Amino acid sequence: MKTADLIKAIIQDSAARRAVAARVAIALGAGGIVAVALFAYALGVRPDIGDALQTWRFTAKLVIAVVFFAAALRATIELTRPDAMAGSALIALAAPIMLLASALGTELVASPAASWSALAIGRNSLLCLTSITVLSTVPLAALLIAMREGAPRSPALAGAAAGLLAGGLAAVLYAIHCVDDSPLFVAVWYTLAIALVGLTGAALGNRALRW
């Protein structure tokens, strides 16, 4: 390949990446506005948010949710492209997993074994499942519509990434309402809720994103 052709290919690839990122960002922004409005109407920020921010459990919960959201955003943008490499796109998800594992280890050391079950069950497990799945609905729909223009190599995998991204956004919102701050609770219920949204995204993406 001539140097001029290589430069042209690089420019075209960069333009395509920016276009995919822009579509995902616009869809996420539009769906996010609806999710935030619904969150404000139905849930709202926990009243003791100031005090909660002084605790390591709440801070860890929020940081894990935000890092997961960022990792899922990167994976979604990459997997929307027809030349996506699934391995490199999904490896970013290792960061929030490691953070959660570290928080879990700290919790197990800091809390007596007799309390682990109660901490994992928490006080609002059903609300957590319901809130994250409902808040993610519109963002997921908006993402899938936007991603149709990207011609993803694996529609199911791209849809799953969109589901994880929508679930991650919903988890960030719910985290500032939730009073169950234990990493054990996060590992069980946040993970389950986001996984359900991811599976829904995979099923819908397998149909909606085919080309």
How many angstroms does the end-to-end distance come to? 29 Å
Global outline? globular
Poorly predicted segments: 1-12
The sequence of SSEs as H and E is: HHHHHHHHHH
In this structure, how is the largest beta sheet organized?
none
Q: Total strand count, please?
A: 0
CA-based gyration radius = 19 Å
- Give the mean pLDDT: 90
How much helicity do the residues have? over 70%
List the total number of helices: 10
Structural class: mainly alpha
Strand content: under 5%
Notes on the structure:
By secondary structure, this protein is mainly α. Helices cover 78% and strands 0% of the residues. It has 10 helices and no strands. Helix 1 (3-42) crosses helix 9, helix 3 (56-79) packs antiparallel against helix 9 and helix 5 runs antiparallel to helix 10. It is globular. Residues 1-12 have low confidence and may be disordered.
Task: Tag the structure with descriptive keywords.
mainly alpha, 0% strand, single chain
What order do the helices and strands come in, and which of them pair?
Blueprint: H1 3-42, H2 49-52, H3 56-79, H4 86-90, H5 94-110, H6 116-121, H7 125-135, H8 137-147, H9 155-175, H10 183-208
Helix pairs in contact: 1-3, 1-8, 1-9, 3-5, 3-9, 5-10, 7-9, 7-10, 8-9, 8-10, 9-10
